Amino acid sequence: MSDGSLSQDEIDALLQETESLEIDTGFGGGSEPLSDEEKGRFLALLGGVIDSQASNLSILTRKNVNLERPALELVTGEEILDQLPEEVVDVKIDFTDALQGEHSYLLDAGTAQAIAALMMGQSGVELDDAALSAVAEAFSQISGPVATEIGNQSGKTVQNAPADYQSVGREKVRLPQGEVVVRLEYPLMIEGENPARLTELYSLSLAKEIINATASAPGRPEAAPAAAGRAGYTAASGAGAQQQRGQGGIAQTFGQSFGAPQGFGMGSGQTPPNVQPVQFANLQGAAAAGEQGNIGLLMDVYMELTVELGRTRKLIREILGIGEGTIIELDKLAGEPVDILVNHKLIAKGEVVVIDENFGVRVTEIVSPMQRMSDLT
Questions:
Q1: Longest dimension (CA), the chain
Q2: Which of 110, 115, 290, 343 is the least crowded, having the fewest Cβ atoms under 10 Å away?
Q3: Do the Cβ atoms of 208 and 41 come closer than 8 Å?
Q4: Where are the domain boundaries for CATH 3.40.1550.10 in the chain?
Q5: What is the pTM of this model?
Q6: Tens digit of each residue's pLDDT (9 = 90 or more) over 182-222
C-alpha cells in the first residue's frame, strides 16, 4: 500500500462491513414501525367515526361543527412538544379491557375555552376546574365512538377510562410511553370560532394492537375504508338538521338495534295483522254501589313511594350518546322543592335532607286530599 491504493482483499473486507451496517431511519434503526398499509387501515377505522364525533360535538356546543379527516404521523415526544402552542389542555383517556394502552387529546387553551363557554352557556369563562371538566366531557364524547368502532371491528370489549384532564404549559404535557408516538391531527372548525387543530395521541403499542385486532377479527365490517375516504363531516344543530337526521335514519337504526320491525312499519310483502275491537261486558249499576267499601281494608297494602328530583326530555341520539361523566340538565332549579309520588302520582312536595348517612325528604307541602284521591284512581 505504499502507492496509497487498496488491494482486492481490503476492498472485499470493506464491502462486507458495509453490508452489515443498519441505516438510521430516525426511529432507532430499521424500517418504520408502521407500514403504509397499517397506517391506511388505522386511518380508515378512524375515518369511519368522524360523522359521529362531529355530531356529538355539535350537540354539546349547539353549533355547526366541521371535523375533517386526520393526518397520521409517527413522531418523537420532542417533536410533539416543539410543535404545540404555549398553553395546552391535555385530556388523557386511556383504553381499557381487551385492548389497553395510552391515549390522549391535546387542544390549545383558546379553543378549549371557547368549547367550555359554549357547553356552559356562558361567555368569557376561565379555564377553571368546571370549564376543564366540560372540555373533558367533550373529548369523552369524541373518544366513545372510536372505542365502539374498535370493539365492533375486533369483536372485543373496548372501554375508555375516565378522563384525566389538566391545563398546562406544553413542556408539562403527558406523552405516551415509548420512543415513537402515533400522532393524528384533525382540522376542527366550530361555527363562530377560529379554525383549530385537534391532536390525538396513541402509544405505538396500542396503535399496533388496534390494527392487528381489527385486521384479524372474523366477519369484521368493510365499510370503514369507504367512510374514511371522505374529506370531513359537517354536523349541524337545529330543527332542520334534526329532522334530516331523525327521519328514517335514527328510527331505522333504533328499530334494528332493539328488535322493532324494520322501518317501524310494515315492510313490503308483510301480511297486515288481524285487528278486532275488544268486546266488554255491560256495566251494572249495582257494581258501582259495591265499590264504596271500607278503605280500612286497604291499609296494609304496600304502595311505591318515590321522590323525583326532576325530569328532562332527550332525543334518541342524545340518549344513545350518554356515557360515564355525561351531565344531564333537569327541569328543576337548585333549591326548588322535589316531588313526592305514590305509584307515580303526585301527593306532596318536600326538601331533601340527610338522616345519618342516608338521604331523606322533609314534607313541606301536601296536595289537597281530593286531588290525591283522584290521582290515585
A1: 135
A2: 290
A3: no
A4: 36-257
A5: 0.55
A6: 999 999 999 999 999 999 999 999 999 999 998 865 544 44
The closest alpha carbon to 54, from 256, 311, 227, 267, belongs to 227
Give the amino acid at 214.
T
Q: How many residues does the chain have?
A: 377
Helix residue ranges, H only, 258-293:
285-290
Provide the 8-state DSSP code for 318.
Answer: H
Q: What pLDDT digit, counting tens, does each position of 106-141 carry? A: 999 999 999 999 998 888 888 899 899 999 999 999
Question: Integer distance in angstroms from the first to the last C-alpha of the chain?
Answer: 115
CATH number for the domain formed by residue range(s) 36-257: 3.40.1550.10
What are the DSSP calls for 121-180, one per residue? T-SS---SHHHHHHHHHHHHHHHHHHHHHHHHHHTS-EEEPPPEEEEEEGGG----SSS-
- Only one residue has cell 360535538, namely 57
Q: How far apart, in whole angstroms, are the C-alpha atoms of residue 63 and residue 81?
A: 30
78 or 282, which is more confident? 78
Q: Per DSSP, what are the bridge partners of residue 346? A: 341
CATH code linked to domain 303-320+329-376: 2.30.330.10
The answer to whether the beta carbons of residues 173 and 84 sit under 8 Å apart is yes
**Grid coordinates standing for 295?**
278503605
**Residue ranges, CATH 2.30.330.10, the chain:** 303-320+329-376
